[in-house]
Design brief:
two-stranded parallel sheet, mainly alpha, 120 residues, single chain
Length: 120
Amino acid sequence: MVKRYGRQDRHEVRAQQIWQILISLAHNRQIITYKMLADLIGIGGGGVLGNGPLARIAYYCIQNQLPPLTSLVVNKKTGLPGNGIPVKKSATQREDVFNFDWFGIVPPTPDQFHQANSEA
């Protein structure tokens, strides 16, 4: 039976969903706004992403010495990641994300995102 993401999924499950979106964006050298991402995954406004699923992805990347995948999610007005996301706001970091072989690594599980958040 096919399992779908739901509105009540915990942050770690949503992080896994967002991870797939972000690595596809990286492959295509694209960015996305918080609002566009929130709409894409069906959770409404972008304000719910920063301290939830995106933080877990950011911590996972930091702890595993991966480029900051969350740097692809930006504020519509500034074109930069929000203040709540632990990434430097530089174009060179984004290039590191674009050039990394994301499809060459096994995607993290919700448990791994949970552990990364716990260790942060």
